[in-house]
Protein 1
Amino acid sequence: MDSPIDPNQNHLLAALLDTEFDRLAPYLELVPMLLGDVLYESGGKLQYVYFPVTAIVSLHYLLENGGSSEIAGVGNEGLVGISLFMGGDTTPSRAIVQTGGHGYRLKAHILLEEFNRAGPVLRLLLRYTQALITQMSQTAVCNRHHSVEQQLCRWLLLTLDRMSGNDLTITQELIANMLGVRREGVTEAAGRLQNYGFISYRRGHIHVINRVGLEEHVCECYGVVKKEFARLLSDVLQRQGKAIPVASAPIVRKTGYAQNSVQSNIQGCI
């Protein structure tokens, strides 16, 4: 059955040449990705990689005391699971769905076989990885040197870049967990952004009213990340309007941060 969600909505899949895409297409599985779903736990062996389409995945680093903070986000510009082709079978971070939606998953060994052909897929994925590392590095610098207000602006803009609208369903507590700050700090920062007329918010919902205002108020980190993605991935080819038949497979969800079990299954980046 044809799916209304086209794999080409993921920019990395859309950037593949026809030959490479046609080899992978029969193995792409459409899966629901619900808010709170854990795709990987820290130290877990990678069985699949994920190409988000309408979902956004947050990568968290966990501390021994149970604390965590977001080190990067992945939406329709990329994939979750770069550790697979960087030489390791496990990942040091937890991957948890931040914004519910759908994505495509691919068995790890299939992508690894394609990567090991040492052709266009290898070059594309390595460039994407460099862009993702830039995002991680800039996040660390931002969290150390910039105010919670600026961090919140950066996080909101990067999230909006992966979405089709201006409404975010997320609590301030979850945002605080993403940024690794106290909830009260997020409440104060969000209140100031609302007073400026940039956003409106109520419990569990943020609506961006003035994106230009956020862009003028954000620190340099947002622009650095966006420019690096554009620099590294601006020359890739994009296929348009090429949907494929796919099989859907549900993700079995567990509450909290317990790991999920998964049943049988750029030009315009962030």
Protein 2
Amino acid sequence: MYLSDILSSSDLFDKISAKFFVRILIDFASVFILIRFVYYRNYKRTDLFTTFFVFNMVIFMITYLLNKVEMSMGAAFGLFAVFSMLRYRTEGISAKDMTYLFLVIAIGLIAAISKGGWDELCLFCLIILVVTHLLEGDWLIRKERGKMIIYENIHLIIPDRRPELLEDLRLRTGLNVHRVEIEDIDFLKDATRLTVYYYP
């Protein structure tokens, strides 16, 4: 009886293994393309690679297992929200990094609960990748980047001398600065904290 149970379990594994491995392969390939060829290409950061891939794998595994008990879409998105906020509820993270974290979790969720075939799943992932690539590039709008700096020529921050301020920032940073925002002013140290915006 015990041997028959093992064989029965083995047959069940054989039935679900093909579907499982196809989905996890599509999931991993999509996240790899997103992180390696879109995120890294634009931001040159590797410190969050492990976070992105681990979050994606954990979401995929848990959601795929829970999907066996007919998990509703509301429950799926509830799980999505919990995992997306768990790691970063007290730690600061940029909007861009949070966006990519959202995307890798969404891909894992879609790959786990999608009821369609592998071709439909590939189409969903492709749409996410193409739209993200277009938005990160200069296809739809010229991309602007910001950098925070400490600036000591405090006499140039008044509105009437804004052209002089921009020109000084261009010369000293080597960046094509076209606008600036004053974040903080320290009159005791004669310094100010600026965010300069430039086109890469």
Protein 3
Amino acid sequence: MTTRRRTRKTRIRVKVVAVLSSALLGWTTAPAIASAPLASAPAPECTARTGPYQWDLERHLKLVADGRQSTADCVAIRAFQQRAGVKPADGYAGLATYRTMLVVQARANPNAAGKCPVRTYQVTCVDLDRQLVWVQQGDRVIYRPVPARTGRDGQETRTGWHTVYWKNRDHHSDLYDNAPMPFAQFFNDGQAFHGVLDDLFRGGSHGCVNLRYADAERLWRIMHEGDEVYVWGVKPGTERSAARG
């Protein structure tokens, strides 16, 4: 047998083996077909009822301000909640969404009304009306506004000028069942800024300025003993005590 014939037979054997191997392993020589992309799941229907802060959210989002929830209102409020990290993002104009709206509105210039005194030194501003906290030095905001929870009716956070006189990173309350007060910064006879782990938008404190844990930690790094604090306004829901005072 010539070398040419042996080579030809070898090529045939190789092809046969390749075909059998493909069949056994489930391979195919047919061209691949691109699979169609999976359709994204449709967004759930927005059916939240009218919320107590419907008017406020409608005006903020430039919707028709009639105080009545519509499908378009619900979708727009839900989109706002998703952008701002409000949970649940369900389109309901509740307190947490309203309070978040106040933070968003204040970001550009929290002291637009000029109620927190402007000084050359650092001042921590506590706005009881809007339940906001920020830090400024001169006209510069060095800690952007965050939501707060201040004293409840009868235990209001004291207004006026105060000075931070003690800081304790891992403080626990001596008065209220050893309650944790992380990143506590005391400014007036037991009242302090500190973090909480519960729902910040529910109820009121015993006079302290409550902050979300992460916000309290950031404020801890910015404030120091001897820093000035200015508190003004009236927490919503405590107007009767303020009037008696």
